[in-house]
Design a protein that fits this description.
alpha/beta; Rossmann fold; 3 domains; four-stranded mixed beta sheet; 12 strands; globular; cDPG_synthetase-like; CobW/HypB/UreG_nucleotide-bd; P-loop_NTPase
């Protein structure tokens, strides 16, 4: 995974994550956990750190396949055999208006358009046209992103506080995420505006990113900010907290009200499919 240098860099030259305990060992922030935990949940080992020569050599000793996870559109540090890019139809135009996102799109062997089931068809077509225009050789995979919610009946008619992935909402410029989509689909009675209940740096985040209102970005770049996020959640009058982040926030804080997790997956439509294209390389 591309570097996330939030701590003591000398202690983070080469970090190996194979369990939740490893995340605790290296004092990972919420932002790091959001990137590492889904891979761990899928049974994969994650490496990250500072010295990517050392990281690569160590990973080569135990892996048959090495996957570079570029995170926030980061260009890979390694020469790869296959370059895959995901293009978000909820943000048409971002694929060509941001660096290094556009560079990655132009380098891609495969471009995946996901979230088709929740995006405006015109926006889906717009990003598809952008792929064809900027990288006509790329294979395009179309996919839904089906959303699942634990205990979905607990959301209907309730006052809901939605907590979404922080970076997606802040510098990612989204005003909603999977949590909001799920809460609205399940008939939430009200999506609570968390701004009156925000504390410290969380209040500052809302001041900086004025497009946010009916949801709470899961900011957690350190112990103090995680505590402020916890207090903001617990200060709210929510009857249910919908956790739309890639991790279960209940592992890193105490939420004093019922909470449910939202997840989404990849459901490919038609052909080509990713497995077919990977089989030509692996």
């Amino acid at each position: 995974r591309h570097p996330m240098p939030y701590g003591n860099l000398e202690e983070q030259l080469c970090m190996r994550f194979a369990s939740y305990e490893d995340l605790d060992k290296f004092k990972c922030t919420i932002e790091e956990r959001e990137e590492f935990e889904p891979h761990i949940d899928n049974g994969m080992v994650v490496y990250a750190g500072v010295d990517y020569e050392v990281i690569l050599r160590q990973a080569e000793e135990e892996a048959d396949v090495i996957l570079w996870d570029g995170g926030n559109n980061d260009i890979p540090f390694y020469a790869s055999d296959l370059h895959i890019v995901v293009v978000d139809p909820h943000r048409p135009g971002h694929e060509t208006s941001y660096h290094p996102g556009e560079t990655n799109l132009r380098m891609a062997d495969i471009a995946i358009i996901n979230k088709i089931d929740s995006a405006d068809p015109a926006r889906v077509e717009a990003v598809k046209e952008a792929i064809i225009k900027n990288n006509p050789q790329a294979k395009i995979i179309m996919a839904n992103s089906p959303i699942t919610v634990e205990n979905p009946d607990s959301v209907k008619g309730k006052k809901v506080l939605v907590v979404e992935d922080g970076p997606t909402l802040t510098h990612g410029e989204m005003a909603y995420g999977a949590g909001v989509i799920a809460a609205e689909k399940l008939g939430a009675g009200e999506l609570i505006d968390p701004r009156p209940y925000a504390l410290g740096s969380i209040k500052g985040t809302f001041a900086k990113y004025g497009h946010l209102s009916r949801l709470l970005p899961a900011m957690g770049y350190g112990k103090t900010q995680i505590e402020e996020l916890e207090q903001t959640i617990n200060n709210s009058p929510a009857e249910v907290v919908v956790i739309g982040t890639p991790i279960d926030l209940r592992r890193v804080m105490s939420i004093d009200k019922p909470a449910v997790r939202v997840r989404y997956d990849l459901e490919e439509i038609g052909h080509p499919q990713l497995a077919e294209l990977l089989a030509k390389v692996l």
